[in-house]
Write a structure and sequence with these properties.
mainly alpha; Cytochrome Bc1 Complex, Chain D, domain 2; 13 helices
Amino acid sequence: MEIYSNHKKLFILALGFFGTLTLFVAILPAMNNQQSVNILPGAKPLTPLQIEGKAVFIGEGCVACHTQQVRNLEMDKVWGNRPSIAADYAVINRTDIWRNTATLMGSERTGPDLTSIGSRQPSTDWHLLHLYNPRSVVKESVMPSYEWLFLNKEYPFPEETLVNVPEEFKSGSGKIVASHRALALVAYLQSLQQVKLPDGRPVPVFLYGKQASNASLLTGAKLSEKSQFDGEALYSSNCSSCHQPNGEGLVGAFPPLKGSKIVLNPDPNVQITIIMKGYNGRESEGYSAMPAVGTNNNLKPEEVAAIINHERSSWGNDSKQVSVEEVKKVISALK
């Protein structure tokens, strides 16, 4: 073929193929994820100091030895309270238009996972000492020392942060002072904390007093204003924190009930079982495990039936209503 003997055409073809592949395999899916995955309630963006610390984390190559992803494996349970989900990373933005260092999930654990290091080890002093010489706090550590992030001064200023390094690990005769880069890095490490997911437990009304009028804070007192087993109110207090008042859930965190095959199934067995026992069958899709809301909140069969019937008749759903007797039968079988 002529193209193989014409280096210009061959180069243009290869470049076009590579550009098209990059667009459809990397750029468009990344843009779609960034626009569609919702931020978890309670997630906080990084402060300016923490953003500086993230740059230090990248510049010092920390990502080569530390991951930031708790996998759905037994061995990963020590690194976080739950497996990581897509929404955990939705709050992170690009560094700038040229650099996309949004997620630092890593690929190797020469050192421990840092997903929740801010919760496991919140102490500033510990982090600074660990950076100065890891062996001073973890004897078996293979992490290199980052002494260049610290200054050795005979007369530090009062506002400077001193690091109390044991004499056997100390370099020089002066006092060890943490540089701005060291403090920024520690601030970033302390920001790494898993957001606690809603567990479906109603919020006690006494914490909010008379202002607890929001649908998500409905309690027994509010329920009595309508009827004893009001499905909408029960859904609001037990389910809406995850699946949202509109039933659409949060992309990357909680699946939607609107249009759900389980909710629309005439047979309520699976839906009742999930409410009473919880469910983790969609973690491979990026959703978090659902707790056993019915059991944890001591819901009565009448309350479970009211919630199910609300879900089956709301947000455009139109499915067979469930009787209290059907719920009791399934709960009895589960026991």
